[in-house]
């Protein structure tokens, strides 16, 4: 009997999924009780829901054959929402965009230099202040835009039989290009978060940014590369595997089983990193929002769409590109 599709494996996955979901729902309840800032609470709940959403979709994909492409695409869309919500959470915690720009302008350093290889992609440096804030914000926003687009592309290519997930090194298939685009987009998003932290380290210390960021990045980026690595192992036979693992769909279901088990551990890690939300507690404010309304507000991406739309309509992207060109011209004059 195939161990990866056996009833015992499904039961183990179900237990882990139920544990992850219940623990997260309990933590969300604590956040509603202690986190008295509605905007911050919405972002935190949205981030916490990532683990149960991952767990449930992995369990369903484990049971349904040939479904991993569709569930992976849906999961990746929610990843983008979580990343951008984390950025907005940090901005809100630091007092909002205007106050954050003001604090950045008061920093002793005038510029932040980009290391290799980002200095070849986004310029040598960025000025602290509005340019810096726009760069980090748009760096996360591009991930929000590209992830759904590549997910839609995966849907279309899979339906037409041209995705090529079982032969990822073929240049006439879309899988290689989608993975490459997602990887570059992820790297830029991670870099922008790290760049943001290096400058605002002191201000973010009460929030315990490091533990929260580590859990978030591990859930999103580690599981992403773990899935790709396992599938490449199954296709290239780098490591001797049982005969049943040579089937690509079987390996995908094995990955979903591993994810179900891992989500139980990630739920515990989230509990430790995010706690009950006491860092957002204000004794002068009372939380009167029902549980269902809080969760629904977190699942509604309207605020993210409006923020992204505002960034485009107000010309933030265009101003950032123009400021980069101006810096390059100044550097040429200095030479």
Automatic annotation (TrEMBL):
Matches recorded under SMART domains: Solute_trans_a
Membrane topology of this protein: Multi-pass membrane protein
TM region positions: 12-32, 44-64, 76-96, 140-163, 175-197, 209-233
Compartments, record wording: Membrane
UniProt keyword list: Membrane, Transmembrane, Transmembrane helix
InterPro entries with a match to the protein in the record: Ostalpha/TMEM184C
Main location class: membrane
Cellular compartments per GO CC: membrane
Protein name as annotated: DUF300-domain-containing protein
Species of provenance: Amorphochlora amoebiformis
């Amino acid at each position: 009997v195939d161990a990866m599709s056996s009833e015992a494996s499904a039961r183990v996955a179900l237990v882990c999924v139920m544990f992850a979901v219940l623990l997260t729902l309990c933590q969300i309840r604590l956040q509603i009780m202690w986190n008295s800032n509605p905007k911050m609470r919405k972002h935190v709940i949205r981030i916490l829901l990532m683990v149960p959403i991952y767990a449930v979709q992995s369990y369903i994909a484990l049971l349904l054959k040939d479904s991993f492409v569709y569930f992976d695409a849906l999961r990746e869309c929610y990843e983008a929402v979580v990343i951008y919500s984390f950025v907005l959470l940090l901005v809100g915690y630091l007092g909002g965009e205007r106050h954050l720009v003001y604090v950045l302008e008061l920093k002793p350093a005038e510029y932040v230099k980009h290391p290799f290889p980002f200095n070849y992609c986004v310029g040598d440096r960025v000025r602290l202040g509005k340019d810096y804030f726009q760069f980090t914000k748009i760096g996360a926003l591009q991930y929000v835009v590209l992830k759904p687009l590549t997910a839609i592309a995966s849907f279309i290519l899979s339906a037409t039989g041209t995705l090529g997930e079982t032969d990822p090194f073929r240049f006439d298939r879309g899988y290689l290009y989608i993975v490459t685009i997602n990887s570059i987009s992820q790297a830029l998003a991670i870099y922008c978060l790290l760049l943001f932290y290096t400058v605002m380290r002191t201000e973010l210390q009460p929030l315990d940014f490091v533990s929260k960021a580590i859990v978030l990045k591990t859930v999103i980026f580690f599981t992403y590369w773990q899935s790709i690595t396992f599938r490449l192992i199954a296709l290239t036979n780098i490591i001797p595997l049982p005969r049943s693992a040579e089937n690509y769909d079987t390996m995908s279901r094995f990955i979903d089983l591993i994810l179900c088990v891992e989500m139980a551990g990630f739920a515990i890690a989230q509990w430790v990193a995010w706690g009950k939300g006491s860092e957002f507690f204000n004794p002068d404010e009372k939380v009167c929002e029902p549980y269902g309304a809080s969760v629904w507000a977190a699942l509604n991406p309207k605020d993210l769409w409006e923020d992204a739309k505002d960034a485009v309509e107000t010309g933030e992207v265009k101003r950032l590109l123009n400021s980069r060109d101006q810096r390059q011209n100044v550097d040429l004059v200095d030479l």
